[in-house]
Amino acid sequence: MSQNQIPALADLVSGARIVALPLRTKFRGLEEREVLLFEGPNGWAEWSPFVEYPDEEAAVWLAAAIDFAHGNLPTLYRDRIAVNATLPAVAPEHIERVLSNFGEFATVKIKVAEAGQNIGDDIARIRRVLELYPDSKIRLDANGGFEISEAVDLINQLKSLGINIEYFEQPVASIAEMAELKLQVNRLGIKIAADESVRKVSDPLAVAQANAADILILKAAPLGGIVRALEIAAEAELPVVVSSALDSSVGLSMGAYLAAAIPNLDFDCGLATSALLAGDVTREPLRAENGFIDVRRVEVDKSKLEIFSAQDHRQDWWLERLERVYKLL
Ligand SMILES: O=C(O)CCC(=O)c1ccccc1C(=O)O
Ligand SMILES: [Mg+2]
């Protein structure tokens, strides 16, 4: 981004709106999602690095948000995006309720490898989803939580149950483990997708160069924005899936623009997560309808900002974080 497209810090601070959105279901251990919103010439943008992220990482998310509010927008190839339902690592008895918020969908991403759970819990979750939605495609996401042997164990157990998966997202943590696991399971017809190995490493292309993934998950915010994410997609020469980070509809709109700007998009995208929120910042949320979300900007609603306004000390925390992180741009 060129310097002249970066707004002054004082303008960012005075225009910042900070909300704490309630979740319907705990996700990543969270019951509320804090996000900072601001408006630029293009419209609203969201800055919402998770609170534990260090400033250097949060700065990449800020560059992405500023670019979406102030920068040039890409050429778009489509005006709606096919999306998957996202199922947190809930117990089987909660699955029907959680998935009912997503409307119709063809694909479910199921979280596995949750701390404190075991592979039996994962299998039970997967089987319950297929009981409720026998025709849905299933993908798994372990957030790097498995050892290689555990991932292989889960894959083999699913095989013996006759359950096919579309792909397995970040089953293990490191690129070296991803490469080794991919070798083992590609033989069984299982594809490996990289998420953290793209967005939480110094070189987002390293996992592709190491032949350690079949698919890349691309998230606009942690990659520094739509332009950078598109470059990665073009250079990696792998199929990509655009996903999000439990954003408000404003953050999801950036994901929708990125997904719309990818020339070849063959998988459903992880952009239906507004269904996990019990509140949003707009009267017209980017909600999946019949398995698609629109590609459009989102208008923020003043009364929603008030209803979900974060507590004073959290506002202060975010504004101080913004001032520190801005200096890193
Ligand atoms: O990809 C999806 O289906 C939704 C987004 C998602 O799973 C997610 C949301 C917040 C933080 C991390 C992740 C993740 O993909 O690991
Ligand atoms: Mg993931």
Automatic annotation (TrEMBL):
<dbReference type="InterPro" id="IPR029065">
    <property type="entry name" value="Enolase_C-like"/>
</dbReference>
<dbReference type="GO" id="GO:0009234">
    <property type="term" value="P:menaquinone biosynthetic process"/>
</dbReference>
<dbReference type="GO" id="GO:0043748">
    <property type="term" value="F:O-succinylbenzoate synthase activity"/>
</dbReference>
<feature type="active site" description="Proton acceptor">
    <location>
        <position position="219"/>
    </location>
</feature>
<dbReference type="Pfam" id="PF18374">
    <property type="entry name" value="Enolase_like_N"/>
</dbReference>
<keyword id="KW-0479">Metal-binding</keyword>
<comment type="function">
    <text>Converts 2-succinyl-6-hydroxy-2,4-cyclohexadiene-1-carboxylate (SHCHC) to 2-succinylbenzoate (OSB).</text>
</comment>
<comment type="pathway">
    <text>Quinol/quinone metabolism; 1,4-dihydroxy-2-naphthoate biosynthesis; 1,4-dihydroxy-2-naphthoate from chorismate: step 4/7.</text>
</comment>
<dbReference type="InterPro" id="IPR036849">
    <property type="entry name" value="Enolase-like_C_sf"/>
</dbReference>
<dbReference type="InterPro" id="IPR010196">
    <property type="entry name" value="OSB_synthase_MenC1"/>
</dbReference>
<feature type="domain" description="Mandelate racemase/muconate lactonizing enzyme C-terminal">
    <location>
        <begin position="92"/>
        <end position="188"/>
    </location>
</feature>
<feature type="binding site">
    <location>
        <position position="169"/>
    </location>
    <ligand>
        <name>Mg(2+)</name>
    </ligand>
</feature>
<feature type="binding site">
    <location>
        <position position="195"/>
    </location>
    <ligand>
        <name>Mg(2+)</name>
    </ligand>
</feature>
<feature type="binding site">
    <location>
        <position position="141"/>
    </location>
    <ligand>
        <name>Mg(2+)</name>
    </ligand>
</feature>
<comment type="similarity">
    <text>Belongs to the mandelate racemase/muconate lactonizing enzyme family. MenC type 1 subfamily.</text>
</comment>
<keyword id="KW-0474">Menaquinone biosynthesis</keyword>
<dbReference type="InterPro" id="IPR013342">
    <property type="entry name" value="Mandelate_racemase_C"/>
</dbReference>
<comment type="pathway">
    <text>Quinol/quinone metabolism; menaquinone biosynthesis.</text>
</comment>
<dbReference type="Pfam" id="PF13378">
    <property type="entry name" value="MR_MLE_C"/>
</dbReference>
<protein>
    <recommendedName>
        <fullName>o-succinylbenzoate synthase</fullName>
        <ecNumber>4.2.1.113</ecNumber>
    </recommendedName>
</protein>
<dbReference type="GO" id="GO:0000287">
    <property type="term" value="F:magnesium ion binding"/>
</dbReference>
<keyword id="KW-0460">Magnesium</keyword>
<feature type="active site" description="Proton donor">
    <location>
        <position position="111"/>
    </location>
</feature>
<keyword id="KW-0456">Lyase</keyword>
